[in-house]
Write a structure and sequence with these properties.
Layout (H helix, E strand, L loop, with lengths): L35 H26 L7 H30 L5 H15 L3 H24 L9 H16 L3 H9 L5 H33 L9 H7 L4 H4 L1 H6 L14 H11 L13
Helix pairs in contact: 1-2, 1-3, 1-4, 1-7, 2-6, 3-7, 4-5, 4-6, 4-7, 5-11
The structure holds fe (ii) ion (FE2) (2 copies).
Length: 289
């Protein structure tokens, strides 16, 4: 597949929605239906976003020179969306801190992982971003496809996660298309080898680090030892987010994979209202680039 035959739907556009969440009233500490483990895993995920999504943006932008005009425009919209996600998750993380959680250990682990990748050539950062963006997109798909994941969550916080999920699906092809463009001179085998290796590496780190981070937050709520096994049940059994994304994760390794091989824009329509109902009405979206 070359950069000139991208399967991103031709009529697809990426629309940054400058939303703000949770500024008016404080959500309860256990905002996810009073569940220690559900709150912990989402809080652990959110801890990665401010630094992680800034890293995604810098990794993709490093390759924007010479990109075809459509891709260059998509990179701009992707950058704007991720910048706003970083801002909202930074605010969310501050609220978690105010409610008593200490996130410093989790944040330090994110910085440590990013520093290792930043020490490698820029194409490695792009590959890691491309792999993690697939991860994010399949998590987002699952989150929107199955309302049970957020059914018991406090309303506005659930909206934050759904809004983020909508935009992750919307821009899911951008890092991948940038990767296709940046590696257009590589052989198919070299491309596959690098992307497979990087995906295995980031997946291992993602699962290990998010689980460890959630366990640390559960410890801060006094849930330890065998009781903390509830987290594994939540992740792998019911609602079982990690188990449910396994099939979509595997597809990444198929020859001819592209994030838009699965056109899941029907999920966006369902949540478009949430995503677009701007509390700060008609707030102008600042271009981050
Ligand atoms: Fe994001
Ligand atoms: Fe993203």
């Amino acid at each position: 597949m070359t950069a000139t035959t991208l399967p991103t739907p031709a009529d697809h556009s990426i629309t940054p929605r400058d939303r703000r969440f949770g500024r008016e009233a404080a959500a309860p500490r256990l905002w996810h239906g009073g569940s220690v483990e559900a709150t912990a895993i989402y809080n652990a995920l959110s801890t990665t976003f401010p630094a992680g999504e800034a890293f995604f943006v810098e990794s993709v932008r490093a390759f924007r020179n010479g990109a075809p005009p459509k891709l260059a425009e998509e990179i701009r919209a992707f950058t704007t969306q991720e910048a706003i996600h970083s801002r909202e998750h930074d605010a969310f993380n501050k609220r978690a801190t105010l409610s008593g959680y200490d996130l410093t250990k989790l944040e330090a682990q994110v910085e440590k992982r990013l520093a290792i990748t930043r020490d490698r050539p820029p194409i490695v950062s792009l590959a890691a971003t491309m792999a993690l963006e697939h991860f994010t997109a399949i998590l987002a798909h699952q989150l929107l496809a199955d309302p049970r994941h957020l059914a018991r969550a406090e309303q506005e916080t659930a909206d934050l996660w759904r809004w983020h999920a909508v935009e992750e699906i919307e821009h899911k092809g951008v890092a991948y298309d940038t990767w296709l463009h940046a590696t257009r001179d590589w052989s198919p085998w070299k491309r596959w080898k690098v992307k497979a290796k990087v995906m295995l590496y980031v997946t291992r780190n993602f699962v290990v680090d998010r689980t460890a981070g959630a366990l640390e937050l559960m410890r801060q709520d006094g849930v330890t030892g065998l009781n903390a096994g509830r987290l594994l049940w939540h992740l792998w059994v019911r609602p079982g987010m990690f188990r449910k994304i396994a099939g979509a994760w595997l597809k990444f390794f198929l020859p001819g994979f592209h994030p838009w091989n699965e056109d899941d824009r029907h999920l966006l329509g369902r949540y478009e209202e949430i995503a677009a109902t701007a509390a700060p009405s008609a707030r102008k979206v600042r271009r981050a680039v």
